[in-house]
Specification:
The chain is mostly helical. It contains 17 helices and five strands. α4 crosses α5 and α15 packs across α16.
Length: 455
């Protein structure tokens, strides 16, 4: 009862009273939250030490964060809370019926409480472990600012989920990756604010004019690798297996249920990337705290030179070959990086399917409860489960391995942003496009929504 009272009194963004928001309203609130996110990302935390801004770029990109700003935590607390609760509910450790309105509200309330807890916990860990160094006497103020930024992101996510398109989590990841991609392609400001060709597009043309062949080739290789990976991910996203289904009570009507090649979407590579990023993060924090390297790794000017971080590091193979600085150890590093991503992405894909309700048994129950069945077969969950098992587990393993390989290969080829970032951007943008197109179609043809609801 105490938990339910606490959940009932949690501050929240009021949901719209209308059953269906219009396209313009959703677009307006999505753009407002997007602008607010960029504004917060450019507000530095007051009281930071001048040498504090160690850039954990990999972690920052997948969490939509900018270290040293109000958005230092990004969507990290929300993602951690969501993953933990989904695993607990999926494995039946926490018994919550998500098919009911009350169950969904209870789940969302627990997620918000857990996300707020992680805001406090991560802010304290970052500052006290030395990841974000505060000026002496300003530790508490810096922790509070980082916590406040995390709290703002939670409520901004809620605004987008209730009033905009998609979710704030997806929007902020896409915004972070998009901004990073634009900066690395067309950036023109140097580290001290001077105007100079920083983006690879400008570097390519300036190197071409100056006759600097190596610089031109390195810039061209990065741009080309990004374009090729982007196109390949778009193509792979369209690969799917379609299972024919029919309505048991309505003869002559049916549909095809698509099973994407990336069945678990980007979840496996996010978890694998987060694991790698956290190894690097804790290695740096431990080295900063203890004053010496640990088995997790040691760093020199931000580059790993020992420990696990060294062997899991992804060297830019193409750039090193062009520079003439290629060493055999880089091949070993690249191999370990590739095996790490492929292995853990496959493992996390299988684990996620079995614990998040995406396995054949759960999907068979969902299909039958919706009044659907496979034509020519009895409405027996065991038969449907056996048929789905032919597709789901092979797709899980192949898709997990493929998405891990793509992410790792992109890192090794030296694309403008990490492989995980490109995968996230493409899939989130595709999903967002589908939702926007659907909403626009409903606004243009109001009768379409009623037809789709009946189907």
């Amino acid at each position: 009862m105490a938990i339910k009272e606490l959940l009932a009194n949690l501050p929240e963004v009021k949901a719209p009273t209308e059953k269906r928001l219009g396209f313009n309203i959703k677009l307006k609130w999505t753009l407002i939250m997007l602008v607010a996110f960029f504004v917060l990302a450019n507000i530095s935390v007051f009281g930071l030490h001048s040498t504090t801004l160690e850039q954990f770029e990999y972690l920052a990109m997948i969490l939509g964060a900018k270290f040293g700003s109000i958005t230092t935590l990004g969507i990290g607390p929300i993602v951690m809370a969501s993953i933990i609760l989904q695993l607990l509910v999926g494995s039946k450790i926490l018994n919550i019926d998500l098919t009911t309105t009350e169950g969904k509200k209870f789940f969302q309330g627990l997620q918000k409480i857990l996300a707020i807890f992680f805001c406090i916990f991560e802010a304290i860990v970052y500052v006290l472990m030395g990841g974000i160094r505060a000026i002496p006497g300003m530790t508490g103020i810096v922790i509070f600012q980082i916590f406040l930024g995390g709290l703002l992101i939670i409520f901004m996510d809620e605004v987008v989920s209730k009033w905009g398109f998609g979710s704030g989590v997806s929007l902020f990841i896409l915004a972070g990756v998009g901004w990073e991609l634009f900066t690395r392609a067309f950036g023109f400001l140097g580290p001290h604010g001077q105007i100079m060709p920083v983006g690879k597009v400008f570097v390519f043309f300036s190197s071409l004019i100056e006759g600097y062949t190596a610089g031109m080739l390195m810039a061209a290789a990065a741009i080309l690798a990004t374009i090729l990976i982007f196109l390949f991910v778009v193509y792979a996203q369209s690969i799917k297996v379609e299972v024919p289904l029919s309505f048991g009570r309505i003869r002559g009507y049916g549909m095809r249920w698509p099973l994407n090649f990336f069945y678990t979407s980007v979840i496996p590579v996010i978890l694998a990337g987060a694991l790698l990023a956290n190894i690097q993060l804790f290695a740096r924090l431990a080295e900063s705290r203890l004053g010496h390297a640990t088995f997790l790794g040691g760093f020199m000017q931000g580059t790993p030179i020992s420990g696990m971080a060294l062997w899991l590091y992804s060297p830019n193979l193409i750039e090193n070959i062009i520079r003439g600085s290629f060493q055999k150890i880089m091949l070993v590093q690249g191999l370990f990086h590739l095996l790490f991503f492929v292995g853990f992405s496959t493992l996390f894909a299988v684990f996620w399917v079995k614990t998040s309700g995406m396995d054949a048994k759960s999907q068979a129950e969902n299909i039958l409860s919706s009044g659907l069945q496979i034509p020519g077969f009895r409405r027996d969950p065991r038969i449907l489960e056996a048929i789905l098992n032919r597709y789901i587990m092979p797709l899980t393993i192949m898709g997990g391995a493929a998405i891990g390989f793509l992410a790792s290969a992109t890192d090794l080829l030296g694309a403008l942003v990490s492989g995980t970032g490109i995968l996230l951007a493409v899939m989130i943008a595709y999903t967002l496009y589908q939702e926007i197109a659907q909403q626009h179609a409903y606004d243009m043809y109001p009768g379409l929504k009623k037809v789709m609801e009946k189907i």
